[in-house]
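Figure caption, in words: inputs first, then the predicted bound structure.
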Amino acid sequence: MLGCGVVGSEVAARLQSRAEALEERIGAPLVLTAVVVRDPDKERPGVDASVLTTDAEAAIDGADIVIELMGGIEPAKTLITRALAQGSSVVTANKALLAAAYGELMAAADDSEVRLEHEAAVAGAIPIIRPVGDSLAGDRIDRIMGIVNGTTNYILDQMDSQGWDFDAALASAQELGYAEADPTADIGGHDAAAKAAILSSLAFHAPVTIDDVHVEGITGITAEMVETAKDQGFVIKLLAVCERVTDSPAGAGLSARVYPALLPRTHPLASVHGAFNAVFVEAEAAGSLMFYGQGAGGAPTASAVLGDVVSVARRKVLGGRGQYERPFHPERRVLPISAITTRYHITLDVVDRPGVLAAVSEVFADEGASIELMRQTIGEVDDEGIQHAKLVLATHENTDAALSRTVDRLGDLDVVRAVASVIRAEGQ
Ligand SMILES: NC(=O)c1ccc[n+]([C@@H]2O[C@H](COP(=O)([O-])OP(=O)(O)OC[C@H]3O[C@@H](n4cnc5c(N)ncnc54)[C@H](O)[C@@H]3O)[C@@H](O)[C@H]2O)c1
Ligand SMILES: N[C@@H](CCO)C(=O)O
Ligand code: NA
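Bound structure (nicotinamide-adenine-dinucleotide present):
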């Protein structure tokens, strides 16, 4: 095992405390031969001190299974590659690495006829990698929409249920240990984007990396946006969307994107509260499936790691081997967000006078975009004595490019004092 932090220490402790049960399931004992750490003198309750070492290469050589829980790109990538090349199967929770080099690492595993398992890398304890890669392998997955970051779901949920502003909700997430010390990867959407890249690669058999994923985080979500959404029967969630696109202005392909979006409060994902994760999968024959549970934390993540270890060990004992499939369809393109069909909810601060709606409608008509719903509420009287109004416009589906141009042009209108907020809507 490489790394013994939050997840690694739970895995090591459970390998010891559940040794008998694991042996029953596998048909052979699992022996933890080495745990690679930075400081072998540190006290680690539940971990046998005699297996601690700083020599990663010696630890890997000859191991049947290598469990990588160090995180980060290097040295994890070099060590995993070494392990696969020598014929060890690898179990990892490293979403950052897989989102950067999924195709390359899977091909290396396939070349050596060993397995590279990674259930813990997406949505922690929730079984989602095996269902998408294995259970649904006989079906055609069309769309995956998930809440795959616990920190941001906690923040948005507190803003929705307690009326907190963003900063208060983030401070609370940090206090509770959900957010990282530097929460940028969580709130910027990058952690969710890594998971979207892995899910897209697996569901659509194409080598999708994190650089292909369109990412928007939640730092721009205000208490007012949450309140407006609530008034209209929506909740704001940070969604990872992976989609098979058959037709778009840019042709057929895939879409992988992460952004905060409105969901109807009746949608199954709307009832995912706190730091929980959930993934909604739509497949041709299976229809809609929902996977729900704890997406982070030492013990839940260790559950997924140990499941992979048992699966690999069983195959080893039975003489089975090999990868799910050889990757992939390199010709499948990830389309730019501009070509993707979405809906917007646009909130405008306008001057309340005749002709405002005509001017707004003209921009929509001109861009070929259409308004599904409009709501006007009375606003404030400003310093110059001018009465303002708040206009909330929900659009029909259109390309993101057309909607984005519409917003730019609305912002240029004389009667529009400010584009107060723009957010996409999903799940309708
Ligand atoms: N914590 C979670 O909830 C969670 C959930 C899902 C996936 N993961 C993933 O699991 C992996 C581990 O996460 P964690 O939360 O346990 O992190 P962590 O920081 O608690 O643990 C990583 C450990 O690896 C050690 N390490 C790093 N580089 C090393 C090196 N070169 N040699 C020896 N030791 C080294 C660190 O000292 C640390 O103790 C990461 O890839 C993470 O993304 C974590
Ligand atoms: N920081 C991540 C950890 C799990 O990957 C989260 O909040 O979901
Ligand atoms: Na998982």
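Residues 124, 149-151, 178, 180, 186, 191, 295-296 surround L-homoserine (ligand 2) (CB under 6 Å).
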